[in-house]
Task: inverse folding
């Protein structure tokens, strides 16, 4: 099977959406959505949610506050 593209998006905005979706999915599956995932410790899910928040906050800051440099 040929590998044609990366699974994780390379563009920041696309990665932001992908990570938010992944975080939401994992959170739902580890808090009781059928069939529930019981093999991921709650502390790891909490860490994932915090890292998603940190990433989104930094990306939003970069987009809104940092000036783009002329090339």
Result:
């Amino acid at each position: 099977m040929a590998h044609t593209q990366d699974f994780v998006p390379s563009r920041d905005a696309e990665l932001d959406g992908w990570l938010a979706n992944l975080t939401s999915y994992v959170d739902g599956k580890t808090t009781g959505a059928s069939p529930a995932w019981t093999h991921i410790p709650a502390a790891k899910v909490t860490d994932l949610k915090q890292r998603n928040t940190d990433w989104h906050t930094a990306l939003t800051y970069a987009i809104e506050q940092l000036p783009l440099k002329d090339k």
Notes: The two ends are 40 Å apart (CA to CA). The chain has two helices and no strands. Residues 42-65 form the longest helix (24 residues). The helical segments are 12-30, 42-65.
